[in-house]
Amino acid sequence: MSEKQARDRQAILDLFDRWATANRNKDIDAIMALYHPDICSYDAVGPLQVVGGADYRAHWEECLPKDADMIVEMQTPTIRVSGHLGVARFLIRCGMRDQDGTEQVSWMRSSYHLEKRDGQWRIAHEHFSVPFDIDNGQAQFGLEP
């Protein structure tokens, strides 16, 4: 790996750290600062896709719990960088903890397409998914890495 690729990889790791912290803090401004204005998201929570920063911001506002804490625990991302493009993937334990301590959380798959514009890495596409059982069509929320 070249020195430039190592710097870019570290910048992307830092971006994911900021993303996780902003998510746990429910700081939508800090979250949205990490995305390109033309973000396309295939979130685990409907709709089928969300395109554009304004619509994705509204999606975040709808999805973040008002009276619960966010749980965001990411495995170390696998990152590949070439020029101004990067891809990343990792498993993420994501959900919420109610005020009584009850957790609604599961492991999900996560993949990202990142672009570097004006010297800054931003998320251009993300995809979260939960595997499903092919025999019964049910989501497999209880899987562990």
Structure commentary:
With 145 residues, the chain is of the alpha+beta class. Helix content is 26%, strand content 42%. The protein has helices at 3-24, 28-32, 53-63, and strands at residues 35-42, 50-51, 68-74, 78-82, 85-98, 103-117, 120-129. The chain is globular and about 45 Å long. The model has no long low-confidence stretch (mean pLDDT 95).
Describe the structure using short key phrases:
about 140 residues, seven-stranded mixed sheet, about 40% strand
Mean pLDDT: 95
Radius of gyration computed on alpha carbons: 16 Å
Tell me the helix content: 25-40%
- The total count of helices amounts to 3
Low-confidence stretches: none
Q: Shape from CA axes?
A: globular
Q: N-to-C SSE series? A: HHEEHEEEEE
How far apart lie the N and C ends?
28 Å
What structural category characterises the helix and strand content?
alpha+beta
**How many beta strands in the DSSP annotation?**
7
Characterize the largest beta sheet: strand count, sense, and whether it forms a barrel. 7 strands, mixed
